[in-house]
Amino acid sequence: MIPDSDLHRHPPALHRASEVNPYTRWIHEHPAVLLAAPTPPALREKMEASPAASGPLVLDLGCGSGNFLLQMASLLPRRRFVGFELRYKRLVKAARKIEKAKLKNVWLLREAAERFALYCAPASLAEVHVNFPDPWPKRRDWTKRLVSVPFLQELERTLQHGGLVHLRTDHSGYFLHVLSLLKQVDRLRPRICCNDDLRRRIPGSNVRSEFEQMFSCQQKPIFYLVLENSRPTR
Ligand SMILES: C[S@@+](CC[C@H](N)C(=O)[O-])C[C@H]1O[C@@H](n2cnc3c(N)ncnc32)[C@H](O)[C@@H]1O
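Above: the input record for the complex with S-adenosylmethionine. Below: its predicted structure, written as tokens.
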């Protein structure tokens, strides 16, 4: 134990995360849109309480501070959007924007993107967006990448027939990594596979996330891949 005389050299430790990072407290201030400790029944309950939005379900995995979700949910008010994100600050910023815009068709989960399938019935998803996932460039870290064979298999199970996955990245290695994994899955097939120049000509694909805006300003190439959940071929 620290003697009283020495306490001035040992200021009270900021033990609790909520004292270090106020966002861990503020995350609880937006219960209508942000589930801080989500469960599948809790999400279902939130969505059922918003009957205006009963259309196709769309996920944004690693949604950051929500710019992409916000634009998409405004453009497509009949669709339901769910964002998965782990960082408190980004979630709180996203929740504030959603509340300010009075959107009733978008929810945020503080949840690992890898666990998305727990929240989705088989063949229930219309679209999944994976915008600028952490690239983990070192070979020894590749196992930490979000897109893996089990992840793609979960997408095959939860996407509707004809459902789409949109992957955007500035990292050519990640793009090639995902293409190489497709050999190991049955149903996801590339439909659009292009760089930014080609993408500009694809109607409706110009909603940009905050990382995309940042990379575009830096003149970085953006790689864009669309996968369609097709019938099994074997
Ligand atoms: C490079 S940022 C991209 C953010 C946003 N999608 C965009 O394009 O602006 C990657 C985001 O994924 C989040 N993230 C990383 N690993 C995650 C995981 N396992 N589950 C959920 N989110 C994750 C990070 O916190 C970060 O906000």
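Notes for the reader.
The pocket of S-adenosylmethionine is lined by residues 62-64, 84-87, 90, 112-114, 131-132, 134, 209-212 (CB under 6 Å).
The chain has one domain: 32-229.
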